[in-house]
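Weekly structure sync, notes
Attendees: PL (lead), two postdocs, one rotation student
Agenda item 3: pending single-chain targets
PL asked that the sequence for the first pending target be pasted directly into the notes so everyone works from the same version. It is reproduced below exactly as submitted, 249 residues in total.
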Amino acid sequence: MYKLEAKNANLWYGKKQALKDISIGVEANSVTAFIGPSGCGKSTLLRCFNRMNDLIEDTTIKGEFLLDKENIYTDMDIYELRKRIGMVFQKPNPFPKSIFDNVAYGLRIIGEKNKTVIKDKVELSLKHSALWDEVSGILNKSALSLSGGQQQRLCIARTLAIDPTVVLMDEPASALDPISSAKIEDLIYELKKEFTIVIVTHNMQQAARVSNKTAFFYLGELIEFDDTKKMFTNPQNERTQNYVTGRFG
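Predicted structure, written out during the meeting:
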């Protein structure tokens, strides 16, 4: 059974079709990478899974998007959906609050008032995001005082604090230096033990290192989807071969 699934998914921004009849299933406790050149539909598809495209005017969506076999668009309250599916963006976006309050923010929004529960959740989430050892003594400092890589891990901790089962990551390391990127990759590898992760990346090496399966998109179509090792060593489609070997993109 798939954790996440798109069935015959089509999406238009106005008259421009951005997704063309895409069907794909994401397995639980795995990392699935979406790759492809800019404008190919990978981030658009990612955003469909937590209804971020609802915020864009003149968007038409057809097909089914499922979380644990429930239809995301018809069977589920959007607030419940975003508790179950977290999102990490390309650029770190910490709030201008303390480190502690950043992580606690989502818990308070969903109505948690028990200070002990919040404290324990903040600590656990910072440990999950491999940041606790670096910030445990400065939780009251502004999150904006952290480095870019630390800020991104803080945003991951903030996402994890409300116990999602799926984490969507839209190029989470593209704005970071190589050392911070490596820490994010190590973190992704650890997180898949407890979470289902879908990552959009332009970095072929990153996709090869962190993912179990890889999907290649081109001009709004899903060209190929397979085990990552096979995708990078023996792709079945010539366009996939040309992309992963750097001939275009």
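Discussion points:
- Residues 4-244 form a domain with the Rossmann fold fold (CATH 3.40.50.300).
- The radius of gyration is 18 Å.
Action: rotation student to compare against the earlier draft before next sync.
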